[in-house]
Amino acid sequence: MSELVEKAQRASELATRLAVCTTEQKNDALKLIAAQLLEETAFILTENKKDLAAGRANGIGDHLLDRLRLTEERMKDMAEGLHQVADLPDPVGEILEGWERPNGLQIEKIRVPLGVIGMIYEARPNVTVDASSLCLKTGNTSLLRGSSSALHSNKAIIDVIHRALEISELPTDSVQLLEDTSRETVTKMLQLNECLDVIIPRGGAELIKTVVKNATVPVLETGVGNCHIYIDDHADHKMAVEIAVNAKTQRPSVCNSTETILIHKDWANKHFGALVQALKEKNVEIRANEKARQLDHSLLPASKEDWKTEYLDLIVAIRVVDRLEEAINHIQTYGSKHSEAIITENEENVAAFFKQVDAAALYHNASTRFTDGFEFGFGAEIGISTQKLHARGPMGLPALTSMKYIIRGTGQIK
Amino acid sequence: MSELVEKAQRASELATRLAVCTTEQKNDALKLIAAQLLEETAFILTENKKDLAAGRANGIGDHLLDRLRLTEERMKDMAEGLHQVADLPDPVGEILEGWERPNGLQIEKIRVPLGVIGMIYEARPNVTVDASSLCLKTGNTSLLRGSSSALHSNKAIIDVIHRALEISELPTDSVQLLEDTSRETVTKMLQLNECLDVIIPRGGAELIKTVVKNATVPVLETGVGNCHIYIDDHADHKMAVEIAVNAKTQRPSVCNSTETILIHKDWANKHFGALVQALKEKNVEIRANEKARQLDHSLLPASKEDWKTEYLDLIVAIRVVDRLEEAINHIQTYGSKHSEAIITENEENVAAFFKQVDAAALYHNASTRFTDGFEFGFGAEIGISTQKLHARGPMGLPALTSMKYIIRGTGQIK
């Protein structure tokens, strides 16, 4: 039997046992893992150095090396994160609804774990801790498939987690790491419907596309954000500039940063120069449509490709529009249904925007950068769902749960 | 452009328009469709006769012919069903949650339509009306792919629906039928992620398997039910027999009927004969394990294949077990996580059963036959979900919705 099938079956067998563990047992285990990670920091950093050396030898670049790198500081952050997850309320067992039928049947809808979660992710080894903790807290067993470039680090982390789980009351193999990181094995994992209840990909657009394309197991899709700010003709001048600049530049590499600014022509006629100047001060490269370039001939022209692009960089596309509807149509055509904002003092325009734009998160007079589990107050984030089934937008612990109906009768037959 | 892509793009374009229609506009349209169906009953029955004649010529069998057949009575039922859906509360626009963040952001979570629903189903033409009405009520455009054997009937029904929608305030093409029913086109439909938000298969196990295997669009899986009744040693004798017989025989062809009866040996020692007799009176064929056959040598032996089989027929597998845990293990091994019942007067055993068995619906002292949207009081049923993401168990109108976050700020930046 392959490593994949063996571990997946084990995860499936243990799911029932983990599902009935108490909140206290789960929280104790999370704290034990935190303590063990701190105690074995030296071991993990030694293993991490092997990945870093191999990465350097393979020329993977400074950016990726930084994502791969663990430090004492980062280890402390992971331990802190585990304590934070332990402190969150346990969604499992929550009674979501309850009612009685005319025939006397008492129906309750209660939250239960999903079962077995398959997690597929890229370089950062801290995701191993992060994913483990969120799955454990929600009573799900997990099968983790990290990047081959982080295999030494991930193996070390999982060893440490196992040593902590051994002294906890949870099954030791509640979390398992797949050491075979080959493409063929990933493809098989994506189709292991008899063992896995859900697959969550975490990483770049290519990874997510591959998972969605090949999975027969249900997928919680996360990721791509081609977000827009629409500056209405009734926008406050200072607020609009501040929000647009923040949404573009505060952290350009993340999915909730803004990629295109749409501007009503009347606002643009008055304030375009101020916006362009503020963006340029932050070293943002601007690609603009014809109407915008008429206001500033020095700007580069934008192509249709620009409207579609998630730059994740200090580049922004700007389109001056004639009316709100043109902005909404643009967003519907090119947006990825992630986060969209309108800046205006006109409530009617807000209402139209909120009603007609289809996206996970719609903002009025705020930066798109707030689409985030922590900013929403969820205390944890599994990712930001860009699909419409099950969970949409920032996903907290409840996104890792399902439900079951409990029906109590007194002999009812049909 | 193929019919599929053209209609799917149209559905996608119209989704935004349909999503903002009011409850009144949607309900009026449903009632207009009901009236139009009654008015054009003769036309639809004439078209239906063509399908029946072709079906007979192809020798499709009486059972399938019956599913294909429309009558005045069935037309009236459809019209009545449309009025019932119109009378249900509209889930769209419901505010699910609302809270304020320390930075002053006001967050609301509101229910919205899914967008475009692809429905793939088999012979019965009444599903065309059923699916259309549920999608319209929830503000979703739909692309319907029925069986080629019902194409005349489905086309006639869609023509009638379009004539009703023309005089309504909803877009006429809110509902569309795919006339190209080829396999290749279905496969393409299953992978049309840029236009479809969800695929719902309705039909037999083979259809559902094909959809799950080939779809890259998220699927709402429905269907297979290998359901169990466990008769505990503390079960009331009369109630246990009554529920077991009802769950097996009241309508054996449906997914929530029971396929295997698990019996604690102590109960079996006293009451096995009475149960067997009651089942035989209803012409149920029994396949039993060795321990059961020791109590009645006349019974056929059960194989492992029997434990796995959804008979959908007057056949039942019986297994006498030594204890509750053996019953729970059996269910976890062979069940399809649909509906499982325990008959007992022992509350501790109920608690263990409810906690340890992983299924959409768990019953205490009631028949598994109640797993149904109408019996649960939902007023409508899209199907019974056997997956754990998004919706589990009977799906009412809310299962056809998603949500979006609406965030109101006063200039917040990060």
Automatic annotation (TrEMBL), chains A, B:
GO terms for cellular component: cytoplasm. Pathway: Amino-acid biosynthesis; L-proline biosynthesis; L-glutamate 5-semialdehyde from L-glutamate: step 2/2. It catalyses: L-glutamate 5-semialdehyde + phosphate + NADP(+) = L-glutamyl 5-phosphate + NADPH + H(+). GO terms for biological process: L-proline biosynthetic process. Residues 35-285 form the Aldehyde dehydrogenase domain. Keywords: Amino-acid biosynthesis, Cytoplasm, NADP, Oxidoreductase, Proline biosynthesis. Its EC number is 1.2.1.41. The keyword Amino-acid biosynthesis applies. GO terms for molecular function: glutamate-5-semialdehyde dehydrogenase activity; NADP binding. InterPro entries: Ald_DH/histidinol_DH (IPR016161), Ald_DH_C (IPR016163), Ald_DH_N (IPR016162), Aldehyde_DH_dom (IPR015590), G-glutamylP_reductase_CS (IPR020593), Glu-5-SA_DH (IPR012134), GPR_dom (IPR000965). Gene3D superfamilies: Aldehyde Dehydrogenase, Chain A, domain 1, Aldehyde Dehydrogenase, Chain A, domain 2. Coiled coil: none annotated. CDD domains: ALDH_F18-19_ProA-GPR. It is found in: Cytoplasm. It holds the Pfam family Aldedh. Its main location: cytoplasm. Belongs to the gamma-glutamyl phosphate reductase family. NCBIfam families: PRK00197.1 (NF001221), proA (TIGR00407). Catalyzes the NADPH-dependent reduction of L-glutamate 5-phosphate into L-glutamate 5-semialdehyde and phosphate. The product spontaneously undergoes cyclization to form 1-pyrroline-5-carboxylate. This is Gamma-glutamyl phosphate reductase. The gene is proA.
